[in-house]
Amino acid sequence: MTFQTxxxxxxxxxxxxxxxxxxxxxxxxxxxxxxxxVQSIFDAIGGGAGKSFVIGGDGRFFNxxxxxxxxxxxxxxxxxxxxxGQNGLLSTPAASHLIRLNKTDGGFILSASHNPGGLDEDFGxxxxxxNGGPAPEGLTDxxxxxxQEISRYFIADFTDVDLKTVGQTRRGDxxxxxxxxxxxxxxxxxTLFDFDAIRALFASGFTMCFDAxxxxxGPYATAILEDTLGAAKGTVVNGIPLxxxxxxxxDPNPIWAKTLMDLMMSDMSPxxxxxxxxxxxxxMIVGRGAYVTPSDSLAILAANGHLAxxxxxGLAGVxxxxxxxxxxxxxxxxxxxxxxxxxxxxKFFGNLLDDGRATLCGEESAGTGSDHVREKDGLWAVxxxxxxxxxxxxxxxxxxxxxxxxxxxxxxxxxDYEAVDSVAANALMSDxxxxxxxxxxxxxxxxxxxxxxxxxxxxxxxxxxxxxxGVRVYFDGGARGFAIVRNGH
Length: 489
Ligand code: ZN
Description:
Blueprint (H helix, E strand, L loop, with lengths): L2 E5 L13 E4 H4 L4 H12 L7 E6 L5 H14 L4 E9 L2 H10 L5 E4 L11 E7 L8 H13 L2 E5 L10 E5 L2 E6 L3 H10 L2 H9 L4 E4 L5 H10 L9 E2 L20 H7 L7 E5 L6 E5 L2 E3 L1 H11 L12 E5 L5 H9 L2 E5 L3 H9 L5 E4 L3 E4 L7 H15 L3 H12 L14 H18 L3 E2 L2 E8 L2 E2 L6 E2 L4 E5 L4 E4 L6
Helix pairs in contact: 2-3, 2-5, 7-13, 10-11
Bound molecules: zinc ion.
Zinc ion binds next to loops.
């Protein structure tokens, strides 16, 4: 095996966001594109010498090729060990767990989340830090800077590694461990949930449909729900990860998981419906004839979490993103714990979780998670719901209605205006911003504005400020409205 130093030049726009670098697959396949970015990550973290990493992805087109390339660049940068999911597969939460469990120096996660996959669709690469969470902004800034200055990358010329076989292998000084992608994750879930109670629930005739959307959670859901918890064969549908997700859009919401929604609203509905996205961090929960909004799901998990052994000691606090409904706030109030309102992006939750201030977190964009990893976790949310259903022995619809009776109900609607003229959109936002001070006591329809502001977040852990995170308008009676501009996604 020899190491080569390849001369290269900076490539434009390799700027990673909080979810890494996402581009069209063909862009990632261009000469030096992936290599430049991976080398820039190594340069940003101070090199790879003696370090260990986790590598895996959601199985989309180009996943395996990219894993092989990263292995060769890791070897040439002096890495000591890499842990790779079998066939290059790891869900995002499972990768986060492996980083933490093995105390590695970080991990490379190949995914474009819920975006479609394939040669003409999307690909992505994200680096997670040693806490298992997405690289913080300071680090992604260093990565971007490295991509703008890069003049060479290091790569080994060994033959491709057999990713199909679980076990240890070596290439020079690099130890490569191919692991069952499900095993450690499943063991973690067994520490959090009452598997015996869930087994008894399925044994009593409880039925479920889990739509894995031909994405990475298929093997996880089959191994845990069917093979371990005794759910009937066929409970998991679209359970084989496909490079193009079966030409679907692996986004677990009523539009893209329409087949599941139709089933749940029909006479043939099982007791519980659930779905997860491309890389397994998002989730959707549906009861028989009853869709559970992500905001209600967070509030219900917070109110009932103590029924699962992993949370029996109570919650330290809960956190939600600003656009997520305040249903969780009222649960936190009743429990006497803090509820944090953060800007959108899992990194804000990461600080609260690391500091022990929050146990559960959630976003209206179908992400829910806890301090067991540093990513949102789709299957975890489904298992917590199953644990609650097993303990309470009532339907999803009953849980929803009981919750609304106890806490009141939040109605909300999200409207996305995509591909709009950004000049006009920014003008609208600055006009709104200018009027904030004069909005109070004005009427909008039959609602009276009680307050209006520009959302700023002071991180209670590191003291960092995030300003201009969106306009909030409050109305008498507790209603809220928001306007947020997101660029690039
Ligand atoms: Zn995702």
